[in-house]
Amino acid sequence: MPVYFLYSPTLPELPTIDNISQTSKDSEDYYAASDRPTEQTGIFTEKDVCLILNIKKAKWYSRWMGTIPDSKGDKKYVMLTTVSEKVIRSKQIHWNEFIKRNIDLPTTKHLVDVEGIAVLQGRFHLVQELHVTESLESRLAMVSIRGETQIPMHLSEVIQLMDGILDGMNVIHSYGFLHPGLSTKKIILAGEGHIKLYDFCLAKDARNVNIFNKSKLSRSLNNFAPEAMYRNEYSSPADVWSTAVVIWELLTGKPPFPTGQDGKDFDDLLAITPVETQVTKYEQLKNKLLFQCWHLPCPLRPTISELRESYTKIFDRFKEIAMRFHVVIYTLL
């Protein structure tokens, strides 16, 4: 049974002031998660929050590392995110609604926990847990360096990671969110085999977020579904496409689509789309539904729920066999 946040407030009225001046230079994407579960959310004011470092300033949002007081009166490190005044006024992003819906999310181990809301200089900031850790991209890079296996990824770890990604995406979709820009870089490792997702958005804002993403990411089928790349259309099937890309990277250690191939024409796309026989390391996890995420036109792709259910059956079957024969199979990437 899910545990819900104890505090689900109505957001306070915002004072009307000029846009906040952001002077920090652009920085690399950064995020991390805490091992301490959130038990409630709250509203923090300027006297509660100490901003330490502007770790990301993009065209439409800023992200800070800071501190808030915890229940014992000590300082707790958190991440604070807000969007620009221009974006709010133009209603490109429905930020206040996004924050409210985040607070209503159930506590789940595969989404970054929400600590609350901070009202700083007249603007709402989403306050989330923080803890320095690596991304899934970093973990995959550790598996093979210059062709030599460094830190192996066993089948049991791959199963845990895939299960967490699919579970997290299923929760996101169930609560009216989408995740434009989902990639191994945007998935946090909160522990061995334990992932957390962040940086998703309201479904109705996904098209605008996709446009923002296209201004900073290379136009590749590894980053965007065809309809998102060429028509600026973003709906749940585009999330399914990106989720399949992440799963493929877990199974093979590399992106599914070659660089320089755009797949603008559906027949051309079919010619470059990966096939089941290319999965040679984790053959136990082959799944025909994964390839339908790319082989079928956008409206006919499986849903996240269907993809998750199909993999759950594979995971359960493998676990049953392993328990029956009391074996642990170590398959290296």
TrEMBL record:
Residues 1-315 form the Protein kinase domain. InterPro entries: Kinase-like_dom_sf, Non-receptor_tyrosine_kinases, Prot_kinase_dom, Ser-Thr/Tyr_kinase_cat_dom. This is Fibroblast growth factor receptor B. Keywords: ATP-binding, Nucleotide-binding, Receptor. One of its GO terms (molecular function) is ATP binding. Transmembrane segments: none annotated. PANTHER family: TYROSINE-PROTEIN KINASE. The keyword Nucleotide-binding applies. PROSITE patterns: PROTEIN_KINASE_DOM.
